[in-house]
Amino acid sequence: MSEKIINIDNVSFKYKGSEEGLLSNLSLSISRGETLLLTGGSGSGKTTIIRLINGLIPHYYQGDIEGKVIVAGKDISQTQLYELAGLVGTVFQNPRSQFFSVDTDGEIVFGPENIGLDPDKILERKEDVVSKMHIEKLMGRSLFELSGGEKQSIACASVSALLPEIILLDEPSSNLDQAAMEKLREQIKDWKNEGKTIVISEHRLWYLKDLVDRVIYMENGKVKHEWTGQAFSNMDKKTIEELKLRPLEVKDILSGGCKDNCNCEGGCDITSSDIEDGVILKNFYFSYNKKPYLFKKKKFSFNDKNLELNISKLVLPKNAVIGVVGRNGTGKSTFLKCLCGLEKDCKGYIEVDGKIYKGKDRLKLCYMVMQDVNHQLFTDSVEAEVLLSMKEEDKDKCDMILDKLGILEFKDKHPMALSGGQKQRVAIASAMAADAKLMLFDEPTSGLDYAHMEKVGDMLKKLAKDGNTVLVVTHDQELIENSCQYLLCIDKGRIGYFKKMN
Amino acid sequence: MKAGLDPRTKLYMILIVSAIVMMSATTPLLWTVRIIMTMIPLILLVIEKRYSSAACFTILYALALVLTFRFMSEQNSGILQSLLTGYSGIVVQFLPALITAWYVVRTTKIGEFMSAMQKMYMPDGIAISLAVVMRFFPTIKEEYSSINDAMRMRGISFGGGKVSKMVEYRMIPLLFSCVNIGDELSAAAITRGLGGENKRSSVVRLKLGICDWLLITIFTGALAIFISFKYIL
Question: How many A×B Cβ pairs under 8 Å?
Fold first, then answer.
């Protein structure tokens, strides 16, 4: 192929303070205009490569580095980060933390302003990017009210506005639903057609099929396999499973509602009579928009228009893992929040074994493991965390729970010192200690590789087997296939469909 | 009417109001000036369609004002009354600054703010740090509300009765996530050229309009009245 634009020559790297090296003697060169996919398990060094190219290593994240990284003729270690700004653009994983501005317009012009372009020229570029990406309707809004997919669009736009030759994407799909991923695919295609060099680090692969020119599989900081784009797209299922990669094909789960033989109220595939012994949810209505009158409580009813949540009756099977799907911003998280009683104005009630849980009682029945587990760990040791949830402190029971989840060895550690997956287990442990029968998970596998996703899936199944009802809000098709017995689709606050998986 | 005030005017307002809240009003004239100065940001909030916060502030301020005037001068006794007077006194004294600051933070875009800082020849380092602080307010709010949710779910909103725990449980996760977000945020910002040697440009073009000059005049006048009546006459 043509000239090499990125040259990583025999690089070894170790983060400051860590014992193990992350990359060892890695060499990689990328041609101008090439689209390269980096894949492999968590901690295999994908993100490190991205950081080597955009200069965050060694300028921001410090560590021991050997070897040379040359990007477009510049030695990265000798080049200041701001000099790279017009050359290399990066889209990051977490949409919450890659914005500098609060409003969308300010965000797109932020990069060009930094390099001191002429204001007229910046506005011209902005117009250009906005019309090319068709994001006119996102302009003039607060970034804090956008959905994950919309945020990622703005991130792409603000990278585009700097007109970089090289675009890096670090797990860009972690928080996206299927539709938003399709959109991301189109964006990458456009960049490719413009002749940009693109490097993507990613677990979820289906949306990149037939798009990338070359695929690199990393393991323990080394290039383990390398395929051409075509060979990769034609890869058989067995190889993919062996490599613990996420599949290249996914089913469209959102439009799979009930079309034939639908005989149930509200358009669900399972009627309440199908489930004999279940968790009954009744009168779950909620809206954020309706403002309360002074001193008067909000009340919602079935007939209200524009409800964000409108479920009059739903029977969930006990001891099962139920996947909750739906587009970004369609009310899935609202559903969970109302269900476990965090939204006080939602007056729905839950009936289990003939007992009715209303208002605050719902908080005792349910436990939600949040997407960002950091928000729900409060104490200074794992053990204290679990004991905090118990009505009466019982150390033996605590040990038992920790052992069951495989985190007994971390008993005395600070929860914040653990890895993401371990933190999640600590949160589950405290849910078990609180005796919650209804366990809710909000996107437990976002940003996880196949192996870790499988582990989470197995854990969910185990929880269900032990007598809990597990609800999982997720975009992760592989997790659904792996562990969900039922699938509940929420569409504009209503039940889209509810069906049993085969 | 659109109150697209220049950020420089807004900063000037904060400066003057903060100076005035530090001086106590003693005569009816000074009280009038003070109340008028509190009304201005309230009216501006209404113009910017921030009705609920404007209403809250107005009620709070009015209540504190009434309480202070009703009880302050008279012989008051009893713990409740003295506490009440103390609190309402503090509110009356400092709420004007809070309202103004609230108005400025809520209605200033970061781009405008940066542009204003450049026009005032503020070094980039200071301008950027202040901009990040403004960027962080909504983030902290978001994080705080999720942490609060998590605490309610665990039934530890009141820290099991201990005030120290109540604060600890809120602050620790909040600090951790803010540090993480801050770290990622700065990494993202420098890959987009923040902190470079070239002079930053700005697409926001600022010009002081009639409203700006009007407000600057009013606020300067108010400060002049306070200083002359308190220290010169």
Answer: 170
Residues of B in contact with A104 (CB under 8 A): none
Contact A106 B109 (CB under 8 A): yes
Closest CA to A457 of A501, A489, A496, A398: A501
A281: which residues sit within 8 A by CB, 6+ positions away?
A: A311, A313, A314, A315, A316, A339, A348, A349, A350, A351
Q: Are B154 and A376 within 8 A, CB to CB?
A: yes
Question: Which residue on chain A is closest to B197 by alpha carbon?
Answer: A82
Residue B18: pLDDT band (50, 70, 90) is very high
Q: Would you give the DSSP letter of residue B199?
A: P
Cβ neighbours, 10 Å, residue A385: 25
Q: Could you tell me the CA-to-CA distances from A463 to A14, A411, A447, A456 in Å, in that order?
A: 38, 21, 22, 11
| B135 closest CB neighbour out of A100, A118, A378 | A100
Average pLDDT for residues A437-457, to the nearest whole number?
89
Query: Residues of A with CB below 8 A from B202's CB?
Result: 113, 119
Is the predicted pLDDT of residue A265 greater than 60, yes or no?
Answer: no
* Strand ranges for A220-277 from DSSP E: 222-228
Burial of B129 (0-12, 13-18, 19+ CB in 10 A): exposed
Q: Which residues of A touch B131 (CB under 8 A)?
A: 100
Cα separation, A15 vs A488, in Å, equals 43
pLDDT in tens, B76-91: 667 777 788 888 888 9
- For residue B227, the distance in angstroms to the closest alpha carbon of chain A comes to 38
Task: For residue A142, give the chain B residue with the closest CA.
Answer: B109
Closest CA to A459 of A482, A434, A443: A482
- A316-329: pLDDT as tens digits: 888 899 999 888 77
Domain regions of chain A by residue span: 265-500
Whether A376 and B188 lie within 8 Å, measured CB to CB: no
Distance of alpha carbon B151 from alpha carbon B193, whole angstroms: 39
- Provide ipTM, 2 decimals: 0.82
> Distance from B46 to chain A by nearest Cα, in Å?
18
Q: Chain B, 33-92: which have a CB under 8 Å from a chain A CB? A: none
- What token pair was written down for A334? 């609202």
Show residues of chain A in contact with B205, CB under 8 Å: 119
Residues A223-232, mean pLDDT to the nearest whole number? 93
Residue B2 confidence (pLDDT): 45
DSSP A313-367: EEEEETT-EEEEE--TTSSHHHHHHHHTT-STT---EEEETTEEE-TTHHHHHEE
Contact B193 A98 (CB under 8 A): no
CATH class of A265-500: alpha beta
pLDDT digits (tens, 9 = 90+) for A14-34: 888 777 768 888 999 999 999
Select the residue from B198, B203, B207 to test the A interface by mutation, using most A Cβ atoms within 10 A.
B203
How close, in Å, is residue A499 to chain B by CA atoms?
Answer: 29
A18 vs A46 pLDDT, higher one: A46
Percent of chain A past pLDDT 70, that is, above it, reads 91
Which of A92, A116, A126 is closest, CB to CB, to B200?
Answer: A116
Q: What are phi and psi of A30, to 5 degrees?
A: -125, 130
Residues of chain A contacting residue B166, judged by C-beta atoms under 8 Å apart: none
What is the reported pTM? 0.85
Residue A255 pLDDT level (bands cut at 50, 70, 90): low
Compute the half-sphere exposure of residue B230: CA atoms within 13 Å on the CB side of its CA. Answer: 16
Arithmetic mean of pLDDT, A96-111 = 90
| C-beta atoms of A89 and B142 within 8 A | no
* CA end-to-end distance (rounded Å), chain B: 39
List, for residues B144-192, the tens digit of each pLDDT value. Answer: 999 999 998 888 877 667 788 888 888 888 998 898 888 889 899 889 9
